[in-house]
Amino acid sequence: MSGIEGKVALVTGGTGGIGAAICIELAKAGAKVATNYRNQEKAEKWQAEVKEQGFGIKIYQADVSDYGACEKMVAKVTSDLGPVDILVNNAGITKDGMFKKMTKDKWDAVMNINLDSLFNVTKHVVEGMTERGWGRIVNISSINGQKGQLGQTNYSTSKAGMHGFTMSLAQEVARKGVTVNTVSPGYIATEMVMAVPEDIRNQIIAGIPVNRLGTPEEIAALVGFLCSENAGFTTGADFAMNGGQHMM
Fold first, then answer.
1. Would the pLDDT of 1 be above 70?
2. Within a 13 Å sphere around the CA of 13, how many CA atoms are in the beta-carbon half?
């Protein structure tokens, strides 16, 4: 048993790709799952689809780059479902470009969504976790936060910063029964990656030792473990799931 039956889980950016798989994984384990959205039409369509599969996942409108909006979201989740026990900081965007051509707007947009969101959401749930003596926080980073990537100084910086947040917060809350970990996926067969031209996608796969893309469900399975009772001795770690493309 995972030990999270009845726990309240909040997954940011959970209506597509890896986030959606994480929502379903946690719901399967018995958690009461909530996620946020920015596009209402897309989110409601996804919610209806997962409801048909038997998962009653709650959705809330919130921009994770907005501190006040995150405070209101957490308050609403708490009112509807109960205090948040599990937080998965998954929301993220890319705005790629070579550094010499990168604009301040592109830099700020990525930092605000990918990195500032960790503070904006976690700030409103971690104190309750420590008071109750149990909590799980998982931050979804990227292989490119570990090794860097041409044309992604903004994205790679934001994703590397996530693990600095993980390591520091993990030390602050470990004695209170709260764990904080990072998962760094490589190339995953999400809608975004599958939209890449096939010849380029094949070049990417050729550079992955296991010779395939990962699946959102594989990432979700690891997140599910990190949110479980069995992961209580695991904190401050960065888990690479990239098919051997980057080994540390």
1. no
2. 18
Rounded to whole angstroms, how far apart are CA atoms 76 and 66? 15
Give the residue among 27, 8, 63 at the shortest CA–CA distance from 220. 27
**Token pair listed for 108:** 């700020």
Q: What is the pLDDT of residue 18?
A: 97
* pLDDT-derived band at 191, boundaries 50, 70, 90: confident
155 in active site = yes
Q: How many CB atoms lie within 10 A of CB 244?
A: 12
Q: Tell me the fold of 8-241.
A: Rossmann fold (3.40.50)
Instruction: Answer for the pair 81, 34: CB distance below 8 angstroms, yes or no.
Output: yes
Is this model's pTM higher than 0.90 or not? yes
Contacts of 166 (CB under 8 A, 6+ apart): 137, 139, 180, 181, 182, 236, 238
pLDDT in tens, 66-123: 999 999 999 999 999 999 999 999 999 999 999 999 999 999 999 999 999 999 999 9
Find the catalytic residue in 37, 67, 155, 187.
155
- Smallest Cα–Cα separation from 41: which of 49, 29, 31, 32? 49
As a whole number of angstroms, the distance between CA 167 and CA 188 comes to 25
CA distances from 68 to 51, 64, 105, 123, 124 (A): 29, 9, 21, 11, 10
Q: Which helix (H) or strand (E) holds 86?
A: strand 86-89
Edge-first strand listing for the sheet containing 86-89: 58-61, 32-37, 8-11, 86-89, 135-140, 178-185, 238-241
